């Protein structure tokens, strides 16, 4: 298994974690999370950690890249890639099988394609120039750059500027790029039809609210985490923060958040299609079949 990896990806609410954990239990695997918000401590329900799923029939399945930084910190793909390969090496040294599982496309692609990344400092002079541009001009510049971006970069002016700052730095400092191992991966994706995904997203949102997602965000705010920082994390943390601060009522929060998650799911689907166009083969699994059938398909492909 040297430099080899199994990955299980898919749109939000497709059951990636459950499948990955079940597979790990069968073949002696360990999970490498690929979720941009599950890295944060205290962000549990809103990020969908579902840590109870990592215990299967009394067996604890090891997981990595979850709860590794404090909420409020701005973690990035450069740090993720570095942390991924550190954890990956540890798993290999234990002779276990690494299984990547998640839905953050850029994190997944950064390790599957071996992006050559470097830590990028702030460039105040460049930021001054970029701040003079309109949101539309910034979006157009992002579409033209050579480094692919998480689509959330297009929704926030500060993130757009930071993304461009990173791109321009890479172009001007090619010798600072970091060499990383080239992985041989077999990639499985879980897919449901559009209406079923919509139903699953709405049902899961309602369930998480019942499980105490509002209280979770209240506790983060009470810990002193700036409200703007929480909004920066998007989706659940953005709209629940607005609700707690009285900026929107409950019905508006639920409706807006539900719509935003549906839109996020569409962007994820777009990302998977782009990954396939860029040469990453994904073996798609019908989400409607049973867990046992999904596992049988994967085992058959591995053999």
Can you characterise this structure?
The chain is α/β, with parallel strands linked by helices. The protein is built from 12 helices and 10 strands. The strands form 3 sheets. Strands 6-2-8-1-9-10 form a 6-stranded parallel β-sheet, with helices on both faces. A two-stranded parallel sheet has the order 3-7. A hairpin with a 2-residue loop joins strand 4 and strand 5. Helix 2 (77-93) packs across helix 3 and helix 7 crosses helix 11 (250-277). The longest helix has 28 residues, at 250-277. The two termini are 13 Å apart.
Short synopsis of the structure:
This protein has 303 residues and is an alpha/beta fold.
Features:
Helix Hairpins, 303 residues, two-stranded parallel sheet, single chain, alpha/beta, 12 helices, 6-stranded parallel beta sheet
Measured distance between first and last alpha carbons: 13 Å
SS elements, strand count = 10
Largest sheet: 6 strands, parallel
> What is the fold named in CATH at topology level of the domain at 197-261?
Helix Hairpins
Helix content: 40-55%
């Amino acid at each position: 298994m040297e430099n080899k990896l199994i990955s299980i990806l898919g749109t939000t609410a497709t059951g990636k974690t459950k499948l990955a954990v079940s597979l790990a239990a069968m073949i002696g695997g360990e999970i490498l999370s690929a979720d941009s918000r599950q890295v944060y401590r205290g962000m549990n329900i809103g990020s969908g950690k579902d840590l109870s799923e990592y215990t299967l029939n009394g067996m604890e399945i090891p997981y990595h890249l979850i709860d590794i930084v404090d909420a409020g910190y701005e973690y990035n793909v450069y740090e993720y890639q570095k942390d991924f390969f550190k954890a990956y090496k540890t798993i290999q040294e234990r002779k276990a099988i690494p299984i990547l599982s998640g839905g953050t496309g850029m994190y997944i692609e950064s390790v599957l394609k071996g992006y050559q990344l470097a830590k990028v400092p702030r460039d105040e002079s460049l930021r001054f120039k970029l701040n003079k541009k309109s949101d539309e001009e910034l979006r157009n510049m992002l579409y033209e750059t050579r480094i692919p971006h998480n689509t959330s970069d297009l929704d926030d002016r500060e993130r757009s500027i930071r993304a461009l700052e990173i791109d321009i730095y890479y172009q001007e400092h090619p010798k600072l790029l970091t060499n990383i191992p080239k992985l041989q991966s077999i990639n499985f994706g879980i897919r449901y039809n559009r209406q079923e995904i919509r139903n699953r997203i709405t049902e899961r949102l309602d369930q998480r609210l019942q499980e105490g997602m509002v209280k979770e965000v209240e506790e983060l705010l009470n810990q002193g985490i700036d409200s703007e920082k929480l909004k920066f994390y998007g989706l659940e943390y953005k709209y629940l923060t607005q609700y707690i601060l009285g900026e929107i009522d409950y019905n508006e929060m639920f409706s807006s958040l539900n719509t935003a998650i549906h839109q996020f799911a569409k962007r994820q689907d777009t990302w998977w299609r782009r990954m396939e166009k860029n040469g990453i083969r994904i073996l798609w699994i019908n989400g409607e079949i049973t867990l046992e059938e999904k596992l049988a398909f994967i085992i058959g492909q591995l053999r």
